Every structure is written in structure tokens, then in C-alpha cells.
Amino acid sequence: MKNLAFVSLPLVALTLAAAMPARAQSDIVTLVNTDTKAVAEYWTAERFKAATPLPMPLATDSNSKVEPSAPTGKVESADGQAPLLNVLPAEQQLFTPDPQVQRSGGGLLEPGAVGTLGAHFTSTRVFPMFTGSATPFSADRAYPHTTVGKLFFTIGRQDYVCSASVIQRRIVATAGHCVHSGTKAGFYSNWVFVPSFRDGTAPFLRWNWRAATVTSTWASGGGTVPNAADYAMIEFSDQPISPEGRPVRLGDITGWLGWQTLSLAANHTSKLGYPCNLDNCMKMQNVMSGAFRSGGSNTVQYGSDAAGGSSGGPWVQNFQTLQVGGGTGSNTGSNRVVGVTSYGYVSPAPKVQGASILDSRWVSLFNFLCGRVAGNCN
């Protein structure tokens, strides 16, 4: 492993969790990892490379067009934070991807960025992306992009990928269906998070899970969508960034996004992640669009061309580095997650995705993991 250069800051000592099976607490279902070493040993280059996108849950009713209702209740929020450690990325190669076929754009008619439902969007690879000595100056190596990454995990004997984002020092948010089946089959396993993943590399290391939690709304929902709370949070273990270094926390290196509840129905978001229909999920993507319509069951739909692999990626309001004179609107909270990718449609033609509106169940997950081990959050 290549060493990562950094400037050290004081750290809070962590308490190792005791062995614990999956358990329910109020609206929370939790699984604790008692063997992080086994997770690290499981993920070989071959398994990283063979991991496939988790099929996105698919809705079938794409006919009714219902305008989203205004959010109700108290809005709760938390601010994001730029990295606290000045870390230079080291391009640790997890695996070597197969060469991609580059399609020439000459003479081809590109479809408009809108599907059959009329939900407009703008979809782009995150840019600029440099290589060689200029790689550290790439957009995906700078905050707030560093908070977004690829999530690897196992279901049975098959390895999969989703997308996810850092929302506190040790806490990552993703979709409930990337963590738990939504049925009696229960939790999946072997979660590893790779922030700023690109072309098989881990510039800010790979991180092993320590605890996973979902809402009972998702865990008991039968795995169907739309679901009122298809989101999850995972706690990740600390690790040294040099052979002789002391352990540091994930969010101290990547920074973290903020979040805001009851803010999805009337908003504009950047939907980030690694959809495998775009760049073969080897590069971070950003789909930007505004709220289109209600999806029912406490969900909202936005225009998007992302498919499998994008599940769990953050929907971020005001995704930005604030410029001089900016931040003058009425909803100015920047870099705040207001949803995560939950579902699409059986047919790719509508080109919309849905997400659950974050509410008190999101806050319960967050508060639970923040209080589970000292130092998980501020």
C-alpha cells in the first residue's frame, strides 16, 4: 500500500464493539461486525473486479403523473465538513479493469436528456479528471466529491456494487436495499467503501464496515418499491494511512456531506454515484435535475439516466464550492443530502429515479450510529 501524506490532528480513542447479532431498536435494525480482518482478507483483486451492479429495485406504475406535495413537519439538518486532514491521494490499485470500448460521437444522433415522462435532466461524468502527475488536481479528488464512493458487498456467494456517501466521521449513507434484503433473508455482508473510486483505484484507501443499520420500514417492507424509508447507514472502522501511523477516521480524510430532512419534494439535486450504464461504473457521475413528481409512499421522482450501480448514491442540494456572492437563495444549505437513489422503472424509457423523503427515521439512524461508539460523529 502506498503511504498517504497527511497533517495529524488529535483523535478520539475508539471503543471496540462487542459481538452482537442483528437486532431491532424502535425503527432501527442493526448488524455489528465482529471480524473486520475477515472482511479485509475476503476482498481480493479478483473479487473487486468481478463485483456486479446490484439490480436497482424497479417500479411498474409509470402512467400517473402526480405533482409532488410540499414537505410538512419540522425540517432537521446537519452541516457538512471539508477534510480535516490534509491528505494527498495515493492511487492504490484494487484491480485492473478491462479496456473499455470508446464510442465515437461523430455522425451519431444523441437522444435528448429527457425520457418519455418528460422529466428533464443533465447527466455528466464528473470533470475534469486528470491522469498521471496531474491526478491529484482532478475534481473527483477534491471535496465535496471525495465524500462519494463505491460500495462493495456480498449477497450469498455473489459480490455487488452500489454507491454511497460519507455523512460523518465514520458514517456512510446508502440505500436500504444495498444493505438488507427487506425480507427475512436479512442483512448482506462484507461491505467495503472506496471513496473517490476511479478505474479500479482507491485514492483514499478502502474502508471496512463495523456496523450496519436500516429502518424497520425497509427491513419489513418485502423488498418492494417505492418504500417510505429505503436508506441505510454504515459505520466504518478506522485505519492508519501509513504503516507506522496511528488509525484515522474516514471522514477526517474525505470530509463529509451534510443532510436535510423533508426537503426532497421541491428541490434541485445533484445525484452522484457509479451507475454501470455510464462509463461501466468506473468513473463518478453527476446527474442534475429538479423534482418532477411524487412517486407515492413518501418518495419523489427526478429525471435521471442512471441505472444499476447508482443505488444508494446521494441526492445533494446545492452541491458546490461556494463562490463570492453566492448562497443568497431561501434554501442555502450547501452540500446536504436530501435523498439517496432508491428505484427506477422496469422500462428504461421514462428516465426517472425515485428516492425516499428523509424524515425522522433518517434522524433516528443517524443519532443511533453517532451514539454507538465515541468519535463516530463530532
Automatic annotation (TrEMBL):
What single Pfam family name could you report for this chain, choosing any that match? Trypsin
Gene3D superfamilies assigned: Trypsin-like serine proteases
Keyword annotations from UniProtKB, A to Z? Hydrolase, Protease, Signal
UniProt entry tagged with the keyword Signal: yes
The GO terms this record gives for MF are: serine-type endopeptidase activity
Q: Where is the Peptidase S1 domain?
A: 153-349
Annotated InterPro entries: Glutamyl_endopeptidase, Peptidase_S1_PA, Peptidase_S1_PA_chymotrypsin, Trypsin_dom
Region annotation (Disordered) maps to 54-78
GO BP, sorted A to Z: proteolysis
Q: Which residues form the signal peptide?
A: 1-24
PANTHER family named among the record's database cross-references: PEPTIDASE S1 DOMAIN-CONTAINING PROTEIN, SERINE PROTEASE
| Protein name stated in the entry | Trypsin-like serine protease
Upper lineage: Bacteria, Pseudomonadati, Pseudomonadota, Betaproteobacteria, Burkholderiales
